[in-house]
Structure formats: C-alpha cells, structure tokens
Amino acid sequence: PQSVSFRALADLYGVRHRLIESATDLVPAVDAAAASPGVDVVEVRTDRRANVELHERIWARASRRLDDALG
After folding, report:
1. How far apart are CA 37 and CA 5, in angstroms?
2. What is the dihedral of CA 51, 56, 61, 62, to 10 degrees?
3. Across the 71 residues of the chain, what is the mean pLDDT of every consecutive 10-residue run?
4. pTM tops 0.90, yes or no
5. What DSSP element (H or E) covers 30?
6. Phi and psi based region of residue 27 (left: phi greater than 0; alpha: psi -120 to 50; beta: remaining)
7. How many whole angstroms separate alpha carbon 21 and alpha carbon 34?
C-alpha cells in the first residue's frame, strides 16, 4: 500500500498525471500518454487484497496445468 500522492510527485517533477477512474478510461489515457512527448504518469488504483486473491488463483491454476502437462 502506498501513501504517496502520485499527483503531487508528478507536479513536483513537472510531468503530466492522469488518474484512471474506470476501466474504460485506461486505453485512452495510455494512448494519450504514448502520443505526447515527455513523461506521463497514468495512475490506476486497485484493491490490494483482491489483487492478491486473483494472483493466488491464477498461480494455483497455472500450477495445476503444469502438473497435468508434465504428468
């Protein structure tokens, strides 16, 4: 978990900052950042607990598939 304000850091260094509020905002923000010169910070906030749970499920599934494939 971060208590850092990425907007404040971006302002400090004079770079653009975009906070993504919804999934539909992500691609346009990344496209805009890629099309503009200089540095852009595209911030995506997530739920750490949900991310950990998702990764654990993915790792378990990948492990089962590897076990099945390697027999």
Report:
1. 23
2. 90
3. 86 97 95 96 93 95 94 81
4. no
5. helix 23-35
6. alpha
7. 19
